[in-house]
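We close this part of the discussion by returning to an individual protein. The amino acid sequence and the backbone structure tokens for this protein are reproduced below:
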Amino acid sequence: MTETTTVHLLRHGEVHNPEGVLYGRLPGYRLSETGNLMAATAATWFAGRDVTALFSSPMQRALETSAPLVDTFDLPVTVDDRLIEADNHFEGLTFGVGAGSVRRPEHWRYLYNPFRPSWGEPYREIAARMRSAVIRARDAARGHEAVAVSHQLPIWILRLHAEKRRLWHHPGRRECALASVTSLTFEGNRLVEVAYADPSAGLGSDAGVAGA
């Protein structure tokens, strides 16, 4: 019989970010009080499932989100750099019109091509690294389930790739809320299902571009 394996991509919980900075890969951004509650809620949602492997982005907010899962399943978490947030020119700035960085002419040259996108890591490169991270998790949990904690844009790009949809998109249309779960189920090496769940719905706000 063909083994069934599921890799769950868990987005991290809400981040303490009162200044609304697009924090990207910057260090030191921890979960908020609500974010810690989201992480605990996600661990409760996973409890009783056949999880045999845990992976995480190296970012603090992702590792903090994985901590309740470590306790729930008594498993170590493996850091995989391929699960990291996408690189972005606007990292460390506020983004948008009005007081945001978009109104400043020195940034305009990074906005010419939304299909690539020109302001950051190309979508195809994100899809490739996330796919390889998922394959690693799938192989580590053959016949069982794995959880990999990552970030909104990489998870969404991987889902678009898995569903054979175009990779460029409007950020406001991503179905990837804070502490949500995007699940990829494989029969052997063949992807057979993509599913989505939002265990923490209603616990906090989703902060747009700053909440990466």
Observations:
- The first strand starts at residue 4 and ends at 11.
- The chain has one domain: 4-210.
